[in-house]
Amino acid sequence: MRFYFGSSALLATALWIVVASVPSLAMDSGQQALVIEDAWSPQMPPNVSMAAGYLTVVNISAVPVTITSLSSPAYHAVAIHRSLIENGVASMVKVKDLVINPGQRLKLSPGGLHIMLMNRKSKSASTESLPIELKLDDGNVIDVTLNVIPGRVQSPQTEQVTDHSKHMHHGS
C-alpha cells in the first residue's frame, strides 16, 4: 500500500516530527538554562576573611530560573546580597531567592546585587580563581569560576569601590 502526500501534508508531517522530537520549552537535564559571563572577584589580602564576587547571568531558557543558594569550597558561607544606602548609611540585605526571567540579563556588580563570600576557610594567599556553585530551584547546579583579579578592588567596568568593610549586614 502506498500513501501519497501533497506538499502541504508532507511539510506538516515533517514539522510534527521535528516538534515531537524537541523537548518542551523547559530545559532538559542535559542543558543549562543560565549562561554566566564576566565572573570575577577582587583579590583580598590573606588576613581578610570576606570577599565579593561579581558576574552577569543570562537566562537562555523560556521559563524563569531561580538561584536558591550558593556555596564554595573556599568559604564557609556564600550568599547573594543587595547593597543599599539609607539615610547616608551603607548596608547589605541578603537576597533569599534570585529569580532570572526568560531572556533576562542580570548583572551582579559593585554597589548593587553581588555575591558575598564570608569566612574564608584558609588564610593563605588567594589563587587566580575561586570556584562557586549556584544551586537552582529545579535541583540543577551550575559551577562557576570567579577570576581573582590581583590588586583590583574596583570593577573593571564601573570603577566603583568594592570595599565591604564598612557595610552593616541586615537580614538573613
SSE inventory with pairings:
Layout: H1 7-21, E1 34-42, E2 51-59, E3 65-71, E4 75-86, E5 89-95, E6 98-100, E7 105-108, E8 113-120, E9 129-136, E10 141-149, E11 168-170
Parallel strand pairs: 1-10, 5-11
Antiparallel strand pairs: 1-2, 2-7, 2-8, 3-6, 3-9, 4-5, 4-8, 9-10
Which key features would you list for this structure?
46% strand, Immunoglobulin-like, 172 residues, mainly beta, disordered N terminus, disordered C terminus, 1 helix, single chain
What is this structure, in a nutshell?
By secondary structure, the chain is mainly beta. It has one helix spanning 7-21, and strands spanning 34-42, 51-59, 65-71, 75-86, 89-95, 98-100, 105-108, 113-120, 129-136, 141-149, 168-170.
Could you explain the architecture of this structure?
The chain is mainly beta and about 170 residues long. The chain has one domain (about 30-170): Immunoglobulin-like (Sandwich). The chain has one helix spanning about 5-20, and strands at about 35-40, 50-60, 65-70, 75-85, 90-95, 100, 105-110, 115-120, 130-135, 140-150, 170. Strands 1, 2, 3, 4, 5, 6, 7, 8, 9, 10 and 11 form an 11-stranded mixed β-sheet that branches. Strand 9 (about 130-135) and strand 10 (about 140-150) form a beta hairpin. Residues about 1-5, about 5-30 and about 155-170 have low confidence and may be disordered.
